[in-house]
Amino acid sequence: MASDEREIRTVHSIWIDAVNAGDLARLLTLVAEDVVFLTPGQAPFGRRDFRPTHGRPPTDADLLHQRVEEVVVVGEVAYTRSRDSLSVTRVQAGRRHSSPGIA
To answer: Contact, 5 vs 79, CB < 8 A?
Structure first.
């Protein structure tokens, strides 16, 4: 595995850890000032409008998992393709119900 790919995979891991911790400050250290997020179903947005977990803080019951399937580096441009899954556990009448989903 090339050095660039290894570093990108490391950043992905740090990103997911920060998302799961609800650590916006740490996430923003990973985001360039001129970043553009491309998210299905939404208009492109930048750093100023970035809100992880869609404006809702994660709970102990929410956990994002991400598997990087492909890293492509061409010169100074790189992109990744990954598969996300989200585990949600709801507490209802004193019982916990888990429902994993694929994003």
So the answer is: no
CATH number for the 3-102 domain, one of 3.10.450.50, 3.10.20.30, 3.30.1460.10, 3.40.50.300?
3.10.450.50
Starting at the earlier edge strand, list the strands of the sheet with 62-74. 62-74, 77-92, 95-102
Q: Where are the alpha helices (DSSP H) in 22-94?
A: 24-29
> For 1-41, what is each residue's pLDDT tens digit?
789 989 988 998 898 888 878 888 898 899 889 988 888 88
- Which pairs with CB-CB distance under 8 Å and at least 24 residues apart come from 22-25? 22/52, 22/53, 22/57, 22/58, 24/52
- Spell out the residues 6+ positions from residue 28 whose beta carbon is closer than 8 angstroms to its own: 47, 50
Can you give the pTM of this predicted structure? 0.64
